[in-house]
Specification:
Length: 191
């Protein structure tokens, strides 16, 4: 995962996932076209490849700290504190939650009022408590007249009263938090 400064899109820091204790020290490196060293931080304890990620702050109980929310190919979500300095060479996850399965987490995002929201290969959109890993709510249960294929994306309107999901069958579904069935199905989208 690379972090870039918004001014000029300059590479700022590189995070590399590891699944075993790494005895190799990865110092800051000079990258082609960048005049200053780029810090490298190891994200320890990863059991599978990264499929999606989000950087957010403001979860309940987080004291406003900024975290990585990483969705993996195996259906897990890992939470890592982001490092704004290079004094720590490796970081362990503050939480690892088995949320989806089987298959990858296509999108993960912290919505402070709702929790960690994720979608994946299992056709579900799941809301998870960022502190405990407990499932708070899910959309697209079997039999709900929802998506037939893997869910690839979701988004909320500004007041969080409407959730839109998109899946492999190219339909967009509109959901309200009170309903277990979609409020509307928008068909005919072309990729």
């Amino acid at each position: 995962v690379n972090l870039y400064l918004t001014e000029g899109m300059t590479l700022f820091r590189r995070y590399i996932g590891r699944n075993v204790v790494n005895d190799v020290n990865l110092p800051a490196t000079l990258e082609p076209g960048i005049s200053r060293p780029v810090d490298t931080v190891l994200l320890m304890g990863m059991q599978d490849a990264i499929a999606s990620c989000d950087i957010s702050s403001g979860a309940a109980g987080s004291s406003g700290r900024e975290n990585f929310y990483i969705g993996h190919m195996n259906g897990e979500i890992s939470i890592y504190a982001t490092m704004r300095h290079s004094l720590i060479a490796d970081v362990r996850p503050s939480g690892v939650y088995r949320v989806h399965g089987p298959g990858s987490v296509h999108k993960v995002r912290l919505i402070p009022q709702e929790g960690i929201v994720s979608c994946g290969w299992d056709k579900l959109v799941i809301f998870t408590d960022p502190e405990t890993g407990q499932q708070l709510h899910k959309f697209n249960d079997p039999g709900c007249n929802g998506h037939l294929k893997f869910v690839t994306h979701f988004c909320f309107n500004q007041d969080l009263r409407l959730l839109t999901t998109i899946a492999g069958e190219k339909d967009a579904l509109l959901w309200t938090p009170q309903m277990q069935n979609p409020a509307a199905r928008l068909q005919g989208h072309v990729v």
